[in-house]
UniProtKB/TrEMBL annotation:
Pfam families in UniProt: AP_endonuc_2 (PF01261)
Name of this chain's protein: Sugar phosphate isomerase/epimerase
Organism: Brevibacillus fulvus
InterPro entries, per the entry: IolE/XylAMocC-like, Xyl_isomerase-like_sf, Xyl_isomerase-like_TIM-brl
The keyword Isomerase is annotated on this UniProt entry: yes
Length: 283
């Protein structure tokens, strides 16, 4: 089965969703991963589809005309003071567009609050046919695979899963063997990118790389094949922010090169089937 690829929002940071879909189609992506949840970051454009019906119509039309599908939306963060219900309009927009997943991460050190709010997010998403994938981020509160599994085992929601980012997995110091202990059906898609093998000593440098200086697949030092071969065959969302290259090349050419590097890398890698110790989500 051929790998399927999605164009993630951070790869073409600032690109409107309808334009992003057209770029993805021309480059040969199967999906897009959009950010309709406005985060209020400095300089961040607001592409809230729930609040902008004209943009919603353009996005829906672009999906229909190109045949590209919506893989997931981001980013339903869990942090102190957040009420997951604020994400509901964006979840409903994702469902209307045929989306499959919602990406989440945890930015509170209050474990009980994290469990409560993440469980609530899963419950809001379930009637809409959406799963919620928890991503660990090395600069967040839940920063490694152990932390994600702790939350998922506590919430016990069938529509909850784990989303691995190649950069974050490498930086966390987790071992590929640890992936064998994760229920197979908790993996639904992954984030693909590369980065230097050396882990930055400072949080500032790590943050800089993850936000604006990731590398084409196969260009850095992450054992991408070793990680991916421990997972089931799932879509690869290319999240590869590189400010310098995207500005020099433009959104369309940069997105194309990201995809071509991924295809070239995996064409050289033998697919190794792994034996998973768990195959079902605990009830």
């Amino acid at each position: 089965m051929a790998k399927q690829y999605s164009l993630a929002y951070l790869t073409v940071l600032g690109c409107p969703p309808d334009e992003m879909i057209e770029i993805a189609a021309r480059a040969g992506y199967d999906f897009v991963s959009l950010r309709p949840i406005y985060m209020g970051l400095p300089g961040e454009p607001n592409y809230s589809l729930a609040d902008n019906r004209d943009l919603m119509k353009k996005t829906k039309r672009a999906l229909a005309e190109t045949g590209v599908k919506l893989l997931d939306i981001e980013l339903a963060r869990i942090y102190d003071g957040v009420e997951p219900k604020r994400y509901l309009p964006s979840l409903e927009a994702a469902a209307e567009l045929g989306g499959r997943h919602v990406l989440s991460s945890i930015w509170t050190d209050d474990r009980n609050l994290a469990i409560e709010r993440f469980a609530e997010l899963c419950d809001l998403a379930k009637p809409l046919g959406l799963t919620v994938e928890l991503e660990f981020v090395p600069i967040a509160s839940v920063r490694n695979l152990h932390g994600v599994l702790d939350i998922l085992n506590a919430v016990k929601r069938e529509n909850a899963g784990v989303m691995l980012d190649m950069h974050h997995f490498h930086r966390s110091g987790d071992k590929v063997e640890d992936l064998d202990q994760v229920p197979r059906d908790w993996f639904r898609f992954l984030h693909l990118c590369d980065a230097p093998a050396e882990i930055p000593a400072s949080a500032e440098e790590m943050t800089r790389i993850l936000r604006e200086a990731r590398l084409y697949i196969g260009e850095g030092g992450i054992d991408i094949a070793g990680i991916v071969n421990r997972l089931p065959e799932i879509p690869c969302s290319i999240e590869l922010p590189n400010t310098k290259r995207s500005q020099e090349l433009g959104y369309a050419e940069f997105a194309r090169r990201c995809l071509e590097s991924a295809k070239a890398y995996f064409a050289k890698q033998p697919r190794v089937e792994q034996v998973f110790l768990h195959s079902a989500t605990p009830k």
